[in-house]
Every structure is written in structure tokens, then in C-alpha cells.
Amino acid sequence: QVQLVESGGGLVQPGGSLRLSCAASGHTFSIYLMSWYRQGPGKQRELVAAMTSGGTIDYADYVKGRFTISRDNAKRMLYLQMNSLKPEDPSVYYCNALYPSATGPAYWGQGTQVTVSS
After folding, report:
1. What number of CA atoms fall less than 13 Å from residue 51's CA on the CB side?
2. H helices of the chain, where?
3. Distance between CA atoms of 22 and 20, rounded to whole angstroms?
4. pLDDT digits over 63-96, tens only?
5. Which of 13, 30, 113, 116 could form a cystine bridge with 73, CB 3.0-4.6 A?
């Protein structure tokens, strides 16, 4: 069982930056595929960035060059540094932990709201 708690969301002006954090419980954090998703109003949840236990990273095209995912296995933390935020970036951002097997399981945090407005 893994519990995830996101933090760091808030209101930022266009072009600004935020750093999201995800604190994970559990003894085997390091083996999980960790990801950030987001869901805007009336939209489906979509993948923002993912990082494997081995450090392989993948980004959605719309955040490449602006967002950086990282993890600290010793602290059981996942981060998302978001720079050059755009008006289309506001969403609830969710942390996800996926157990590396054919059937998961997957765990979700409660989400943290990011608002971009001048």
C-alpha cells in the first residue's frame, strides 16, 4: 500500500514557476514508476511526466522544455518543477505510483490545484 500527498500548488502569473511535491509512504517507493498527471475542468486526466525507478523520464509534448520531473528515493519524494507556466496549464495535478507489474496496482494522491492568472 502506498499513500501519496501532493503539495505546492497555488496561484501564479503567466510565465511564473511552481514546484510541486509528492510525499509517499511505503517501504518500496524506489521501485515504483512515478508520474504526474493533470486534469482540467471538463477534461480527462492526462499524463504530464513520468519517471521510472531507473531514472528514465518521459514528458508530454506540451510540457517539454518547461517542466522537470525528479525523485528522491531516500526521502520518498517526487517533484515537478514547472516553469514558464501558461494560461492552459491550470489543472488539478495528481501524483501517481504504479507498481511495475502487468496488473499494477496504481495509487493516486488527492491532487493539488494549480491556477495561472494575471
Report:
1. 17
2. none
3. 7
4. 999 999 999 999 999 999 999 999 888 889 999 9
5. 30
CA separation for the pair 57, 34 (Å, rounded) = 10
Is residue 22's pLDDT more than 90?
A: yes
Any residues with CB less than 8 A from the CB of 6 and at least 6 apart, and which?
20, 21, 22, 93, 94, 95, 109, 110, 111, 112
Cell triple for residue 83? 516553469
Cell of 94: 495528481
d(CA 64, CA 48): 9
Q: Which residues contact 72 (CB under 8 A, 6 or more apart)?
A: 79
Per DSSP bridges, beta strands 10-12 and 112-116 are: parallel
Indicate whether 27 pLDDT > 90: no
User: What whole-number distance in Å separates Cα of residue 19 and Cα of residue 38?
Assistant: 14
Cell representation of residue 109: 494522491
